[in-house]
Amino acid sequence: MPSSKAEGTLPSTKGNERPSSSKRRKPPTSDDEMPSRVLAMKPSSKGTATRKKKLPWNKKEVQAVERHMKHFITSCVVPAKRDCEKCLGAEPEVLKNREWQHIKFYIYNRITAYKKKVVCE
């Protein structure tokens, strides 16, 4: 009969029996027993991206965007990235502090306001 403590095999368990808990690791009872590597870990930086401060739209920027993107507002279609980049390319001096996402969000908000205005009338 083979030995149950043969090298590389586990002792047999019947049903839902668990091996004795004497070999399980017990959680430390105080901070002194915590490994130093756990205390030295930096907190996760996930979700802590730096945000740029909100920059209000001036009249020249609004006029430039509306000159090129008015049809998106009246047709209630949010422009794609390439449409916004065309607008940036057409008005580089006026829109030098804006990215394509700023234009897209501006048009989206104008569409929302336009829809509310049309419904209220």
Walk me through what this model shows:
This protein has 121 residues and is mainly α. The protein has a domain of 62 residues. It is built from 4 helices and no strands. Helix 3 crosses helix 4. The chain is elongated, with a radius of gyration of 32 Å. The mean pLDDT is 79.
- Main β-sheet, in a few words? none
The secondary-structure element order is HHHH
Distance between the termini: 93 Å
Helix content: 40-55%
Strand content: under 5%
Judged by helices, strands and strand pairing, the structural class is mainly alpha
Radius of gyration: 32 Å
Give the low-pLDDT segments: none
Number of strands: 0
Number of helices: 4
Region (Disordered): 1-56
Outline of this structure?
The chain is mainly α and 121 residues long.
Q: Secondary structure elements and their pairing?
A:
Elements: H1 36-39, H2 59-75, H3 81-90, H4 100-120
Helix pairs in contact: 2-3, 2-4, 3-4
Which key phrases capture this entry?
single chain, 121 residues, mainly alpha, 0% strand
